[in-house]
Specification:
single chain; 340 residues; Neuraminidase; 1% helix; globular
Length: 340
């Protein structure tokens, strides 16, 4: 959310989701229905609940993690922790809130990313923000008990930098790389990427031919795209895409049932507001985009920071709105809806 997170892009890639059957709440969804809920509303001294991710646990339940601002302020550097809730019925209802990562930063911790490691533990990547603009570190914790507890943090990015991270963007390549070759033990920067005017908060998807597509938030009219042919080491010169809009991050994922790419972002050519909230499909690996559909359109509100977890053929889309305080939203959207 903070454009001060250095005008450069660092790609953190790719997720494996273990499918463990269809939860009851999904089996009951009607065709064309996109159930919506304010899954974490604001409250006293809690003016913002934002930047979320979801992972399916071994028993089929869902773990939701998000940034909880708890001390009365909602600015990007205000005190915040990473909290969690569990759903045992496919997202219909959610259990009590509990803390995944307490605030151990000078300012806050935020931007949760989950991924399942090869040893079956859960990795949680996040930002430890120590100053407003000069010290932000990417951290990693792991859980061997399905998200009940997490280990002490391991710092991945070097000191002396403001290294940004965005929620729900972690992916694993077919090679096994999480754009780290050893399950998070060691990390290094890729080649720097971006138009000279600046980009930040990227999202990546592995293409069918093994290349990696990166979409990048910019302040020059929308999402720019770059391609890596070596697993994220180096990148092509970014080019503008049809995903035009304001400076806000995009979510990109692959629809399991069709193999097409899905993007969700703020599609508002020429405007600076994060409205509307739009989806689009690419049938040719990101070369062109079609089936533009608005998910949210209310004129008096805005939406941002989408993240998707696919469970069966349903997209669990988290994002936040602005009206009445920044509350975390959850919408469950069948894959077929994006094509209608």
């Amino acid at each position: 959310m903070n454009p001060n997170s250095r005008w450069r892009c660092i790609a953190v890639a790719a997720s494996l989701i273990t499918i463990i059957g269809v939860p009851e709440g999904l089996a009951q969804m009607k065709p064309g229905e996109t159930p919506h809920q304010v899954v974490v509303p604001v409250g006293p001294d809690n003016p913002r609940n934002s930047e979320a991710d979801i992972i399916q646990l071994k028993d089929g339940s869902l773990l939701l993690g998000w940034t909880e601002f708890y001390a009365g302020g909602g600015a990007d550097h205000a005190p915040a922790r990473i909290s969690g809730k569990i759903s045992k019925d496919g997202g219909e209802t959610w259990g009590d809130k509990y803390t995944l990562v307490e605030n151990d930063g000078g300012c806050n911790v935020m931007e949760v990313n989950f991924i399942r490691l090869k040893n079956e533990s859960i990795a949680l990547f996040y930002c430890q923000k120590n100053t407003e603009s000069t010290d932000c570190r990417v951290m990693m914790r792991t859980s061997s008990d399905e998200g009940k507890t997490f280990t002490d943090p391991k710092q991945l990015s070097p000191d002396g930098k403001y290294t940004g991270l965005t929620n729900g963007r972690c992916i694993r390549l077919k090679s096994g790389r999480i754009l780290s070759d050893d399950e998070g033990e060691t990390w290094r920067d890729s080649e720097r990427v971006g138009p000279e005017e600046g980009c930040w908060e990227p999202a990546c998807a592995e293409l069918k031919d093994g290349r990696v597509l990166m979409l990048m938030r910019t302040g020059i009219g929308g999402q720019y795209a770059g391609i890596s042919e070596d697993g994220g080491e180096t990148w092509s010169k970014p080019e503008a895409t049809a995903l035009v809009g304001t400076a806000a991050p995009v979510s990109i994922s692959r629809i399991p049932t069709t193999g097409d790419l899905l993007a969700i972002w703020n599609h508002n050519p020429g405007a600076k507001r994060r409205n509307p909230f739009t989806s689009a499909i690419s049938r040719d690996e990101g070369k062109t985009w079609e089936q533009f559909k608005n998910i949210e359109t209310a004129a008096d509100d805005m939406w941002a920071y989408p993240a998707i977890t696919w469970i069966d053929d349903v997209a669990f889309l988290t994002y936040f709105n602005y009206k009445g305080g920044i509350s975390l939203q959850l919408r469950r959207i069948p894959a077929s809806w994006f094509y209608e």
